[in-house]
Amino acid sequence: xxxxxxxxxxxxxxxxxxxxxxxxxxxxxxxxxxxxxxxxxxxxxxxxxxxxxxxxxxxxxxxxxxxxxxxxxxxxxxxxxxxxxxxxxxxxxxxxxxxxxxxxxxxxxxxxxxxxxxxxxxxxxxxxxxxxxxxxxxxxxxxxxxxxxxxxxxxxxxxxxxxxxxxxxxxxxxxxxxxxxxxxxxxxxxxxxxxxxxxxxxxxxxxxxxxxxxxxxxxxxxxxxxxxxxxxxxxxxxxxxxxxxxxxxxxxxxx
Length: 255
Known about the structure:
This is AraC family transcriptional regulator. By secondary structure, this protein is α/β, with parallel strands linked by helices.
């Protein structure tokens, strides 16, 4: 369940939203309420909600300012703005600051809520996947792994296509350079041969799937680009010192 905070100074509106959330049967749990943006910000700091459903027009601090300050303080919770027709420009401004969507208060109904929160649910799931990827692949955060443009193109290609058949010849065709020259230059710039770089990337992906999913060893090997189970197990043990099954059984490797 996604933890949800409601920020609105109109109690009838809050009660209506609560009823709709219950009827909708969506994976969102309301964990608190605040009557203005200042109180809402304090609750964001304390409760760390996944979602904030906030009115735009409120005393003390309005919803757009709440969103802006929350972003400045580093909170990445999703925001859904509640607005009246006359506040439409404020709603558009909120989207600029990163709000997921807005809902017109006067036309809020069950179907509209389901549609909006369905979008938010998808965003939150993507965020979770990205955070997991950052844990296992911190090098993806680097914009330029080397100081050579063409080698960076190869690395970027491997990041996106590591599970496919990648060879020195195909990389030669990708950047239109001599294969032997690429082989020497790639090792010079990365400290690894192209084959070892690809293997390491596949093994890292395999480690993530072993820790984060219940896929079989065979399924994982195929997904990360190994032609058969035995070869996957052999290369995995070469890089990790343990078999995939042994790795999966270690508690420290599972979130």
